[in-house]
């Protein structure tokens, strides 16, 4: 790299939410000059960077102007203007992950086709251009319909079980996927630097909130056998290599009841399934992302202990200025680490923070996490 | 506390250097609104807080105006205008550590008298008002002369060995202390909250750079026997109780060759002897300071593993825009964590950052740290 990443390099982050915030907490250790673009003038990163710009992530001119004097750009959200990033790349700005990867991952249909073309195990699927295609779908009911673009955190996803559901399906260009009767949702975060070094974090197990379709409970490391873990990690490494990505990539997978692993979705950035690495592992996903994009040796991904991550979601029924209940009580417990995201207003299921609970005794980590879930509430 | 410390409370930090910077890295987790006052417009904290004000820490009006609309003030340096803090306390602003403690600790003479009055073991000493008093000093040569005020990091300290040295001694009001032929310099960081809860970090061992008189090498936890560790920790707890301090307090001590422990100096704030707690302990000194001043339950101070801290000092012979040599090489090593302080310019022995080296094998941690010391350099 022409410039030392410490002190001189100007790094832009597209998106100023919690992922950017935690990335900045780590970037401080390396004197990185951080510029942030986010449409929300009260974004969590706004007071923690060298320059904060309020503007649309989807607008070509805004993203291009934000990036044109920077040395490097990374993202904390996929939904950004890729044409602008492509132009910036052409003009010599380093964009990690590369714009072509963001473009691929923005479209769940292209993602699925990529899996198929590269022999990456995934559920059967069909791309449809509108709702009418569902009448003659190649898949049997039930299946999942996902909008090809702009879905996130469970938004843009519908389960189609009955003929009635077909009537109420999304109109737009979508992907339908065979319903997977999985045993567990698992994830592996993989990092790759420009030298081609690739490294995975140990596989984690997730439980979702069925109402909000958000990760509610994550346990690391997984207790599944070595064979399953190695298979999941090998899949993640293969994807990183196939993509030739620079940066980190979260690979969300299903472990089916008969032991198959099917890739569900990718996220080419720090991810909710890696927050526990801050306290739980030798390097965090945020430190690893910085090492990867700055082409430094990748760090030690091993777990230091058992870690459970719970999302701190806005309590249903409350909307307005956030109030946190139970902080004092949970901080009196052993191994509890609270991360609030600097969001002034809460609403039902909004991600307001997360808590990591560590313990050398795995069952104790889990029971403490359940306790924290009962005590700690975000109300208004 | 009237306001929740998260989201609503406005916290001021007097001083915007590396200690404030690492305190902010932790305060981000609790949505603390941070205001910083520092005389250097390029201070390490300047881009990491809600509001940065450039101004003198010693000026009454500046400190008073900075603090008058805040809810709480803490410090990262003792050399601040205490009269302003006292007035602010009188008007209802919470100042932790309390202004009376900062006043006491600013004056090394008062500190010594406090030790004596409270039966805290310390070396024999005498207060002198000017150099002439040295002719009839009650202590035998050699002894240490310390300016009562404004000394730090070895500045304002002289070893007086010969009659010639007496001629060249400091003119000003000073403290002279019996020369202690110590075996090891040790430190204990203690925290106390307003409920009166007191907790110590495990004792650490330090080695100083004789040229710069700065901590150069710190090892935690100490390998001295439990009896010595408990005695050192009991002394630190007693001081915290005697002072009724709220916040953290670093207690620097000498372990003498015949096994006595003598208190050398106090620092009522995060301290260089606690940086390794970020990676080495369950809670860091920065997290503990926040817990203490916000009257939250104190955290778990145990060591997670062996940690060695080395200061990254400006290389002698170089002055100007800082360049870091060897970063890539040391990041390829196991358990190496770099913390740069965001200082643009280096000069000989300036504290530019620190590195924490952890390892479950203590000897390996030490040898890796020695290697980092050889490889990593700050030049210009």
Automatic annotation (TrEMBL), chains A, B:
<feature type="binding site">
    <location>
        <position position="108"/>
    </location>
    <ligand>
        <name>ATP</name>
    </ligand>
</feature>
<comment type="function">
    <text>Catalyzes the ATP-dependent conversion of 5-aminoimidazole ribonucleotide (AIR) and HCO(3)(-) to N5-carboxyaminoimidazole ribonucleotide (N5-CAIR).</text>
</comment>
<dbReference type="Pfam" id="PF02222">
    <property type="entry name" value="ATP-grasp"/>
</dbReference>
<comment type="subunit">
    <text>Homodimer.</text>
</comment>
<dbReference type="GO" id="GO:0005524">
    <property type="term" value="F:ATP binding"/>
</dbReference>
<protein>
    <recommendedName>
        <fullName>N5-carboxyaminoimidazole ribonucleotide synthase</fullName>
        <ecNumber>6.3.4.18</ecNumber>
    </recommendedName>
</protein>
<dbReference type="GO" id="GO:0046872">
    <property type="term" value="F:metal ion binding"/>
</dbReference>
<keyword id="KW-0658">Purine biosynthesis</keyword>
<dbReference type="GO" id="GO:0034028">
    <property type="term" value="F:5-(carboxyamino)imidazole ribonucleotide synthase activity"/>
</dbReference>
<keyword id="KW-0547">Nucleotide-binding</keyword>
<feature type="binding site">
    <location>
        <position position="185"/>
    </location>
    <ligand>
        <name>ATP</name>
    </ligand>
</feature>
<dbReference type="InterPro" id="IPR011054">
    <property type="entry name" value="Rudment_hybrid_motif"/>
</dbReference>
<dbReference type="InterPro" id="IPR013815">
    <property type="entry name" value="ATP_grasp_subdomain_1"/>
</dbReference>
<comment type="similarity">
    <text>Belongs to the PurK/PurT family.</text>
</comment>
<dbReference type="Pfam" id="PF17769">
    <property type="entry name" value="PurK_C"/>
</dbReference>
<dbReference type="InterPro" id="IPR011761">
    <property type="entry name" value="ATP-grasp"/>
</dbReference>
<dbReference type="GO" id="GO:0004638">
    <property type="term" value="F:phosphoribosylaminoimidazole carboxylase activity"/>
</dbReference>
<feature type="binding site">
    <location>
        <begin position="264"/>
        <end position="265"/>
    </location>
    <ligand>
        <name>ATP</name>
    </ligand>
</feature>
<comment type="function">
    <text>Catalyzes the ATP-dependent conversion of 5-aminoimidazole ribonucleotide (AIR) and HCO(3)- to N5-carboxyaminoimidazole ribonucleotide (N5-CAIR).</text>
</comment>
<dbReference type="InterPro" id="IPR040686">
    <property type="entry name" value="PurK_C"/>
</dbReference>
<dbReference type="InterPro" id="IPR005875">
    <property type="entry name" value="PurK"/>
</dbReference>
<keyword id="KW-0436">Ligase</keyword>
<dbReference type="InterPro" id="IPR003135">
    <property type="entry name" value="ATP-grasp_carboxylate-amine"/>
</dbReference>
<keyword id="KW-0067">ATP-binding</keyword>
<dbReference type="InterPro" id="IPR054350">
    <property type="entry name" value="PurT/PurK_preATP-grasp"/>
</dbReference>
<comment type="pathway">
    <text>Purine metabolism; IMP biosynthesis via de novo pathway; 5-amino-1-(5-phospho-D-ribosyl)imidazole-4-carboxylate from 5-amino-1-(5-phospho-D-ribosyl)imidazole (N5-CAIR route): step 1/2.</text>
</comment>
<dbReference type="Pfam" id="PF22660">
    <property type="entry name" value="RS_preATP-grasp-like"/>
</dbReference>
<feature type="binding site">
    <location>
        <begin position="177"/>
        <end position="180"/>
    </location>
    <ligand>
        <name>ATP</name>
    </ligand>
</feature>
<dbReference type="InterPro" id="IPR016185">
    <property type="entry name" value="PreATP-grasp_dom_sf"/>
</dbReference>
<dbReference type="GO" id="GO:0005829">
    <property type="term" value="C:cytosol"/>
</dbReference>
<dbReference type="GO" id="GO:0006189">
    <property type="term" value="P:'de novo' IMP biosynthetic process"/>
</dbReference>
<feature type="binding site">
    <location>
        <position position="146"/>
    </location>
    <ligand>
        <name>ATP</name>
    </ligand>
</feature>
């Amino acid at each position: 790299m022409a410039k030392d990443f410490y002190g001189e390099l100007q790094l832009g982050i597209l998106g100023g939410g919690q992922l950017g915030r935690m990335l900045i907490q780590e970037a401080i250790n390396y004197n990185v000059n951080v510029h942030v673009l986010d449409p929300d003038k009260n974004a969590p990163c706004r007071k923690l960077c060298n320059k904060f710009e309020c503007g649309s992530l989807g607008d070509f001119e805004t993203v291009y102007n934000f990036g044109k004097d920077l040395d490097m750009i990374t993202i904390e959200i996929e939904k950004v203007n890729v044409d602008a990033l492509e132009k910036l790349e052409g003009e010599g700005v380093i964009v990690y992950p590369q714009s072509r990867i963001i473009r691929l991952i923005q479209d769940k249909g292209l993602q699925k086709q990529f899996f198929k073309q590269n022999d990456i195990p995934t559920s059967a699927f069909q791309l449809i251009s509108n709702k009418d295609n569902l009448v003659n779908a190649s898949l049997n009911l039930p299946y999942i319909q996902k909008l090809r673009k702009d879905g996130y955190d469970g938004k843009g996803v519908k389960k189609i079980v009955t003929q009635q559901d077909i009537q109420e399906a999304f109109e737009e260009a979508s992907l339908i996927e065979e319903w997977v009767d999985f045993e567990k949702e698992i994830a592996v975060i993989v990092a790759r630097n420009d030298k081609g070094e690739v490294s995975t974090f140990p596989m984690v197990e997730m439980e979702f909130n069925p109402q909000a379709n958000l990760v509610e409970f994550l346990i690391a490391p997984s207790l599944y056998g070595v064979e399953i873990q190695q298979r999941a990690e090998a899949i993640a490494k293969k994807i990183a290599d196939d993509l030739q990505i620079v940066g980190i990539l979260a690979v969300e997978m299903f472990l089916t009841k008969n032991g198959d692993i099917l890739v569900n979705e990718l996220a080419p950035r720090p991810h909710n399934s890696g927050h526990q690495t801050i306290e739980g592992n030798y390097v965090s996903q945020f430190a690893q992302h910085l090492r990867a994009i700055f082409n430094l040796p990748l760090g030690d991904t091993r777990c230091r202990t058992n870690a459970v991550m719970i999302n701190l979601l806005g309590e249903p029924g409350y909307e307005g200025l956030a109030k946190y209940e139970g902080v004092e009580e949970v901080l009196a417990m052993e191994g509890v680490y609270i991360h609030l995201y600097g969001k002034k207003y809460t609403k039902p299921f909004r991600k307001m923070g997360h808590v990591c609970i560590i313990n050398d005794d795995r069952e104790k980590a889990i029971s403490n996490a359940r306790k924290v879930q009962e005590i700690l509430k975000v109300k208004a």
